[in-house]
């Protein structure tokens, strides 16, 4: 009996210690994005410890594709800031582009590259660009999601030599 009680106490102490050391998972929604959480049942931004995950942001506001893409990157910045991160902390991007074929895909990525250069001056994040036939937001030419590590931008370094010119 005493051994069983001691085992139970030790198990409870171990569970309590594990709960105290597990990172907190926080859910955020920048102003205007609350409906994503309450209506569509997804979190625009999740922070677990120093890791920040931003759900897909459709490029849906603006007159031109470039303006829509710039708006999406501005929204990305706002989403990150809500969770305590910056654009400099972004370690990975994923973008999804509506396109018919490879040539159309390459054409549609050009304005993204232009805007990307405005928001990421150096220490670029990893990036995967995917072509698709449709996005959730009907008129969006692309959607972008990201992951960041809070504070990592302050200590970024790159040891990548320039390619040799011919």
Distance between the termini: 81 Å
- Please estimate the helix content: 25-40%
The ordered H/E elements are HEHEEHEHEE
* Number of H/I helices: 4
What name does the CATH topology carry?
A: 60s Ribosomal Protein L30, Chain: A
Structural class: alpha+beta
Give, in spatial order, the strands making up the sheet with the most strands: 1-2-3-6-4-5
Q: How many discrete domains? A: 1
Mean pLDDT: 90
User: How can the largest sheet be summarized?
Assistant: 6 strands, mixed
Name the shape in a single word: extended
Examine the secondary-structure arrangement and name the CATH architecture: 2-Layer Sandwich
User: What is the total tally of β strands?
Assistant: 6
In the CATH hierarchy, what is the superfamily? Answer: RutC-like
The percent range for strand residues is 15-25%
Q: What are the segments in which pLDDT stays under 50 over at least 5 consecutive residues?
A: none
Task: Kindly describe this structure.
- This protein has 166 residues and is an alpha+beta fold.
- Helix content is 37%, strand content 24%.
- The protein has a single domain (22-148), classed as 2-Layer Sandwich (60s Ribosomal Protein L30, Chain: A), CATH 3.30.1330.40.
- The protein is built from 4 helices and 6 strands; from the N terminus they run αβαββαβαββ.
- A hairpin with a 2-residue loop joins β2 and β3 (51-58).
- α3 (65-82) packs across α4.
- The model has no long low-confidence stretch (mean pLDDT 90).
């Amino acid at each position: 009996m005493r051994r069983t009680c001691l085992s139970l106490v030790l198990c409870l102490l171990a569970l309590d210690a594990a709960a105290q050391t597990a990172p907190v998972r926080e859910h955020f929604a920048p102003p205007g994005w609350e409906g994503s959480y309450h209506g569509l049942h997804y979190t625009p931004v999740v922070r677990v410890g120093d890791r920040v995950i931003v759900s897909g942001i459709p490029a849906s506001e603006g007159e031109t594709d470039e303006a829509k893409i710039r708006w999406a990157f501005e929204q990305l910045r706002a989403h990150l800031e809500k969770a305590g991160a910056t654009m400099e902390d972004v370690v990975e991007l994923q973008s999804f582009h509506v396109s018919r074929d490879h040539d159309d895909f390459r054409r549609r990525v050009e304005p993204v590259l232009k805007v990307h250069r405005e928001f990421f001056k150096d220490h670029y994040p990893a990036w995967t660009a995917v072509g698709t036939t449709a996005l959730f937001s009907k008129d969006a030419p692309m959607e972008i999601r990201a992951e960041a590590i809070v504070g990592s931008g302050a200590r970024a370094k790159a040891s990548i030599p320039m390619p040799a010119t011919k």
